[in-house]
Amino acid sequence: MPSDCATRKLGMTFHRFPRDYGLRRKWEVALRREGFAADDEWVLCSDHFKPDEFDRAGQVCLLRPGVIPSVLNFPAHLGRVRARKTTTKQP
């Protein structure tokens, strides 16, 4: 893994999972990892967020409040969940 200085030069930052349980749960669900539960040490890199979801006004790059990771590449079998059509037979 590259050093912290190397990743900053590449424009990559790391962001801890939220402490707020509701928002943390949304992050966990977004990752689509069955049985996954993050703790206070888990982080996601900036590649998993859209550029406009960052507050870069200060010296530290922060995520805007309430942001959920949305830039995720999943294998085909974990692709977008679709609602199933149900049909009923008529007598």
Structure characterization notes:
The chain is 19% helix and 11% strand. With 91 residues, the protein is an alpha+beta fold. The protein has one domain. It has a two-stranded antiparallel sheet. The longest helix is centred in the first third of the chain and has 11 residues, at 21-31. The protein is globular, with a radius of gyration of 18 Å. This is THAP-type domain-containing protein. Keywords: DNA-binding, Metal-binding, Zinc, Zinc-finger. Residues 1-72 form the THAP-type domain. Pfam families: THAP.
What order do the helices and strands come in, and which of them pair?
Blueprint lengths: L3 H6 L4 E3 L4 H11 L11 E3 L8 E2 L6 E2 L28
The spatial strand order of the largest sheet comes to: 1-2
Quickly give the structural class. Answer: alpha+beta
The gross shape turns out to be globular
Mean of all residue-level pLDDT scores? 81
User: What profile does the largest beta sheet have?
Assistant: 2 strands, antiparallel
Oligomer: single chain
Number of beta strands: 4
Keywords: DNA-binding, Metal-binding, Zinc, Zinc-finger
Protein name: THAP-type domain-containing protein
GO molecular function, one term: DNA binding
Domain THAP-type: 1-72
